Amino acid sequence: MGNEVKITFLGTGTSQGIPVIGSNHPVCLSKNPKDKRLRVSVMVSWDDYNYVIDCGPDFRQQMLTHKVTKMDGILFTHEHADHTSGIDDIRPFFFRQGDIPIYAHKQVVASLKHRFDYIFANKNRYPGAPAVQVNLVDNNHPFKLGNMEVIPVEAYHNRLQVFGYRIQDFAYLTDIKTISDQEIEKIKGVKVLTVNALRVEPHHSHFNLEEALHFIEKVKPEKAYLTHISHMLGFHDEVEKKLPNNVHLAYDNLIINI
Ligand SMILES: [Zn+2]
Ligand SMILES: [Zn+2]
């Protein structure tokens, strides 16, 4: 028996979010709150801990919506802007708590250092700039967050390496297009799997709906939630009706306990 883990879907949209700026697409004009999707992120909480997986441009709004007062760390899947560009907004947490731990592959850290040099600067730091404590993530090296073990799962986003994470009976993978059978073994039979499903049409670096469903069949979780969704996938309520019984579309602000 482990701890009860609470998963909060902070954002479930693809890189542009839904609605897309300036779009007249019917899904972008939908009045259903489940058709509004911020950039993708989840918060994983247990006991007193809150961790987020990715920190995109909607991070500030997501923290305000969920009245988050403490952030124990950020796990990054990969370096794309829709997963990283909110990092400056860790400042309120940094002012209260000090350096914020981040967990990322060295390639992601290198990209963050290049794009947010002031966060990592050793000399002449701008007063008010946030600081992070870097923890490198590598495949086949599980690590601990508090008392919880985290297993990194390697996958590919076209040719870019991405990491998903297994935390107890929860597995989260986004922006994947291919994954080896060996990596799938790490997450087989989890209670809850979250995976990206961009749209119906194929895409060069993301699972489409069919590929995501095929992947779910291999992993055989009790339940699966789809995320990183484009407006092209269709209306939430209509897509939901067509999915297998144990598969759902995630939506912003959905909370599940595992
Ligand atoms: Zn993305
Ligand atoms: Zn990406």
Summarize the structure.
By secondary structure, the protein is an alpha/beta fold. The chain has one domain: Ribonuclease Z/Hydroxyacylglutathione hydrolase-like (Metallo-beta-lactamase, Chain A, 4-Layer Sandwich). It has helices at 26-29, 59-65, 81-84, 91-97, 106-115, 117-120, 181-185, 209-219, 236-242; strands at residues 6-11, 41-46, 49-53, 73-75, 100-104, 132-136, 143-145, 148-157, 160-167, 170-173, 192-196, 223-227, 247-249, 255-257.
Describe it for me?
The chain is an alpha/beta fold and 258 residues long. The chain has one domain: 4-Layer Sandwich (Metallo-beta-lactamase, Chain A), CATH 3.60.15. 23% of the residues lie in helices and 28% in strands. It contains 9 helices and 14 strands. The chain has helices at residues 26-29, 59-65, 81-84, 91-97, 106-115, 117-120, 181-185, 209-219, 236-242, and strands at 6-11, 41-46, 49-53, 73-75, 100-104, 132-136, 143-145, 148-157, 160-167, 170-173, 192-196, 223-227, 247-249, 255-257. The strands form 2 sheets. Strands 6-5-4-3-2-1-14 form a 7-stranded mixed beta sheet. α7 (181-185) links the parallel β10 and β11. It is globular and about 55 Å long. The mean pLDDT is 97. Bound molecules: zinc ion (2 copies). Residues 15, 40, 80, 82-83, 175, 228 line the site of one zinc ion.
